[in-house]
Amino acid sequence: MSATFTHRVLPYDGVNEFLAGAVPFLGEGLSAGDRVQVVCGLGLEVLLRDALGADAAGVEFTDAARWYAHPSRTLADCLSDAEALDGEGRRLRLLGEPVWARRRPLEVLEWQRVEAILNIAFRETGAAIMCPYAATLPPGVVAAGRRTHPETVRGSRAVPNPGFVDPGSFSAQCDRDPLPPPPGHADELKIDRPDLYWLRAYVAEYARRTPLPDEDLQRLLVAVTEIVTNAERHGEPPIMLRMWTDAAEDARGDPAFVCEVSDAGRWPPDAGFGLVPPRRSEAGTCGRFGLWAVRLLCSLVQIRTGPAGTVVRLRLALPGPLPGTGDGG
């Protein structure tokens, strides 16, 4: 496809600044025959429908709270749409306002990482993506938006963003802080000679003592199998498995079931962290889907690797407050 991928941030302070950037962007797509999609809240949808008039009928409006539900799954679904359209000789033109309100710090961090990583994932699709950032957002969120978008929109113009950071470097910065240590009550198992059938049974037995739903338990077992296999392949003994429930609210605002696999090795760069979704053309290849699939399966995946070893921590949201922790308010 001849179109060039673009990813632009639209900082706005008030209705006029928002419309001055959004309406020309959407109008260009409608004129070009793009698939034009807007992901936003009801307030912005009403503004855009009024500004676009009859042209609004050619725009797909999607509720932001539903669309921005899970970082990796949203990235995968959007990339799939962009690739399919690219194969048809068309372009995905997306105006998407990320949902930042009421998110926990860990979840905010993962959505910021997605904003950076999509510069890699989408660069061959020809998609055009614009992300509005309201001036009322926390300053740190707005500042990160300028670091994850190559261009900034000012009115109907797009200018290079001097604050843009290489996506790989930005992602590495997201992981610079060490993980907090496991609690003293964590269940701990040293894995000397992994028997994956027995290991899954062990994890399942522990998880069934928690409120983890059965569907999430099946996801957990697949994820743990992949992580332990990676530790064998890329790490060094000892391999340790730890599990616990976290009564503190996790990145999705709920208590969490936590499963951690650590080893004494430092994973090489080619091990990958599963941050970039595989392209459709790679469907028959090996080695790209493991950690990416783990990110799809879990609420949050945290990875740290260095001279002290490697830790992969899987978090799955639990329904409601844990017994004895009150109502979570």
UniProtKB/TrEMBL annotation:
Q: Which InterPro entries match?
A: Anti-sigma-factor_SerPK, HATPase_C_sf, HATPase_dom, MEDS_domain, RsbA-like_anti_sig
Question: Which keywords accompany this UniProt record?
Answer: Kinase, Serine/threonine-protein kinase, Transferase
Q: Which residues form the Histidine kinase/HSP90-like ATPase domain?
A: 199-315
A Pfam family that the UniProt record links to this protein: HATPase_c_2
State the superkingdom: Bacteria
* Cleavable signal peptide: none
All copies of domain MEDS, residue ranges: 6-150
Q: What is this protein called?
A: Anti-sigma factor RsbA family regulatory protein
Q: Which organism is it from?
A: Actinomadura sediminis
Task: Supply the source organism's classification.
Answer: Bacteria, Bacillati, Actinomycetota, Actinomycetes, Streptosporangiales
